[in-house]
Design brief:
alpha/beta; single chain; 15% strand; globular; 2 domains; Aspartate Aminotransferase, domain 1; 12 strands; seven-stranded mixed beta sheet
Amino acid sequence: MEVLERAQFIERQGKKVLYMCVGEPDIPPHPAVTESLVQALREGKSSYTHSLGIIELREAISEYYLERYKVSISPEQIVVSSGTSPLMLLMFSLILEKGKKFILPNPSYACYPNYVNFLEGKIVDFKLKDKEQNYSEIEKLLDKGVSGLIINSPSNPTGEVLSKKELGYLANLPINIISDEIYHGLTYEGDEETILRYRDDAFVINGFSKAFSMTGFRLGYAIVPKRFVRVVRSLHQNFIICAPTFVQWAGITALKHYKEIIDEAKKIFDSRRRFLLDGLKKIGLGYWGNPKGAFYVLVDMKFLGKSSIDISLMLLERYNLAVTPGIDFGTNAEGYIRLSYATSLENLEKALDIFQRVKKSNNE
């Protein structure tokens, strides 16, 4: 937030800022999605819905998972909400008791620790390695005080994707698992799997923000084990009520066009990913792991000998480039910065030129 606020201040001074810090697609929503939302409003579809969401959307999500992943899910296991964030709070609330431990990968999405801290749980850091996967070491952290684990594949901030072997191993751990699958649809190499292929009692978080370019629509959903449906329904009804009705109808249209939408998004983002990774290699800059999904690269800037916040502010003040400091995603990402390639190839080229100048300046 410090970097973003400073970037906005610089823009008010009349300077143009190159934003590579925001995790938001720059591709507009599919025209049919926008039209269906407007049509739903015209038809008066603006009243409260069932607390789990309209049955038509839940059935469409069920069909989507069956077609894409060959997984059968009852619409009654699906709860639709205003984005994935409120659902994440509900999922954490269900499986994390006060004083209990919860395992978080480090680095991982910056908001995960906030849920654990809000519920007065204890964070257990699982330090990922940047050159090789080490998920088998997670068993060393398991004890009776551990309530669960969250995984995110494709990952924010690293862009890495869990292999089938890794996902199968994690699914067999004797703890509750939340699988954050919000970047599904944006995997560029290899297969993309849901944890539900390996474990039917996992909690899955997904939605329309990323692959469908519907961030401001605020439409997400969770797939919950059958034994939790009644309590989830009650919690959602009391705390959130329901997602906007007309937005839910737009979600149905998005799923009808999912192949077209996802294929186009993958084509655009993958070309940018390859361009950015090739450019970083030519400059001699390293990055975390093997970014094969989402639209992020975690770039190693430790050679500057500064904190990731100082590096981010330096890039902003000297070059008008806004990036996200690695420390936002955990101590293990200190010295890194996260780049979002949800921007044009022209902007990526400008950013690479800036990094070339930074590297040259540091060597002089």
